[in-house]
Write a structure and sequence with these properties.
This protein is an alpha/beta fold and 409 residues long. The chain has two domains: 206 residues, 3-Layer(aba) Sandwich (Rossmann fold), CATH 3.40.50; 172 residues, 3-Layer(aba) Sandwich (Rossmann fold). It is built from 17 helices and 13 strands. Strand 12, helix 14 and strand 13 form a beta-alpha-beta unit. The longest helix is centred in the N-terminal third of the chain and has 15 residues. It starts with 9 loop residues before the first helix and ends in a 6-residue tail after the last helix. Bound molecules: adenosine monophosphate (AMP).
Length: 409
């Protein structure tokens, strides 16, 4: 299948070309015809697969050939970073088609709120919003969604994890009943099914492979004691082989400590976590994207929010509490069929959690030997493994709450 099979408006084709998309990804080949055919859709698909463009392209196609006067599409996303990434893709794809969009998210100062308000009063074509902030705008009566035709829920599972279920229902209650609804989620826990049954009409379903890391990622693991981790990072980074590096830690305190330590070691790094102001987050991401900053250290907030091409290395300074977060973290490298390396540090305490990850991805991640002058790392002995989910990895997330107490970073 090629993009020309979809008969997109020439201006949209120009947008596609300017973004450098040559061939549709599997989710795009499957979703675009269904959405163009006005079907509701529930798609089980991870980030990194081209899922954003799979719903944006048909929505943009529709808007480009219709009257641009009202807000036609609402995209709900869990975090401001994701909302901004989606907005950037709209800007790229719709540049020549003259379609307007605004990302609406919380935080920031009064000026940002005012900008969002103005754009909505002026009747922006596409609103991309986090649920909380959208509700604030809905309550103020500024946003008019009477002519809405598309509702997209992106990363719906993460929105529910973040406690947005009621907010989503509230938002939907203010939308026209006649609309096309598209739900994208990396996992399908029962709550997502319930939500889908409530808000979708005879949906088509797409399931793009199970949660598996992209084939281009070389995964590696080091069994280490905590006091070996910093030295190992320095050793890995000082070789200069990796130009663009993300380091994930599960707690923001660890992020801050590690950032201080690495900077003392002469490594140019910045921390990224939920305590940063919006402005600070954007500055860090901009520097990283422009390659003036080689290393970002962040919590899992970063794993969902960052879409940068050419990340060569992801390091898990510790093992994420939820095995699915491992996939999200390492999915930041090897985007769109390139290659990258993902290295995980596993101390004695994290071995059991690590074994759950190997269960989830259904294979053993190659063990690396510590450099000679490091001494021995801990022996791998994870103890009792979580029972296998019989090949249906989605169950991993359903069962999560039984065995891990997730902390929002
Ligand atoms: P997503 O899964 O939407 O987060 O997309 C992952 C990355 O793939 C983003 O950087 C997109 O710009 C890129 N992408 C999306 N569709 C294509 C395509 N057809 N060809 C090449 N890159 C793409």
């Amino acid at each position: 299948m090629t993009f020309s099979d979809f008969n997109f408006d020439p201006q949209l084709v120009e947008g596609l070309q300017s973004m450098g998309y040559v061939k549709p990804t599997p989710i795009q080949s499957q979703a675009i015809p269904l959405i163009l055919d006005h079907k509701d859709l529930i798609a089980c698909v991870q980030t990194g697969t081209g899922k954003t463009a799979s719903y944006l392209l048909p929505v943009l196609q529709h808007i480009s050939i219709s009257e641009k006067k009202y807000t036609k599409a609402l995209i709900l996303a869990p975090t401001r970073e994701l909302a901004q990434q989606i907005d950037q893709q709209v800007e790229g794809l719709a540049y020549f088609a003259g379609i307007s969009s605004i990302a609406v998210y919380g935080g920031g100062d009064g000026m940002i709120y005012e900008q969002q308000r103005r754009a909505m009063i002026d009747g922006v074509d596409i609103v991309i919003a986090t649920p909380g902030r959208l509700i604030a705008h809905l309550a103020s009566g500024v946003i008019k969604l009477d002519h809405l035709q598309y509702l997209v829920l992106d990363e719906a599972d993460r929105m529910l994890d973040m406690g947005f279920y009621e907010d989503i229902l509230r938002i939907i209650s203010s939308l026209p009943k006649e609309r096309q609804t598209l739900l994208f989620s990396a996992t399908m826990p029962p709550k997502i099914r319930t939500l889908a049954n409530t808000i979708l009409k005879n949906p088509e379903q797409i399931n793009i492979a199970l949660s598996q890391p992209a084939a281009g990622i070389s995964q590696q693991v080091y069994m280490v004691y905590d006091n070996q981790k910093i030295k190992l990072i320095s050793t890995l980074l000082k070789g200069g082989a990796y130009k663009s590096v993300l380091i994930f830690c599960s707690r923001k305190e660890t992020v801050k400590d590690l950032n201080r330590t690495l900077r003392k070691e002469g490594i140019k790094s910045e921390a990224f976590h939920s305590d940063l102001e919006q402005q600070q987050r954007e500055t860090v991401l901009r520097a990283f994207k422009s390659r003036t900053l080689p290393v970002i250290i962040g919590t899992d907030v970063l794993s969902r929010g960052i879409d940068v091409e050419g990340i060569s290395l992801v390091i898990n300074f510790d093992v994420p509490p939820d095995p699915e977060d491992y996939i999200h973290r390492i999915g930041r490298t090897a985007r769109a069929e390139t290659t990258g390396t993902a290295i995980t540090f596993v101390n004695e305490k994290d071995q059991r959690k690590f074994s759950f990850i190997e269960n989830l991805i259904g294979k053993e991640i190659p063990r690396m030997t510590l450099p000679e002058d490091f001494g021995e790392g801990p022996v791998y002995s994870p103890g009792m493994k979580r029972p296998s989910s019989g090949g249906n990895q989605r169950n991993g997330r359903n069962k999560k709450k039984v065995w891990v107490n997730r902390k929002q970073a």
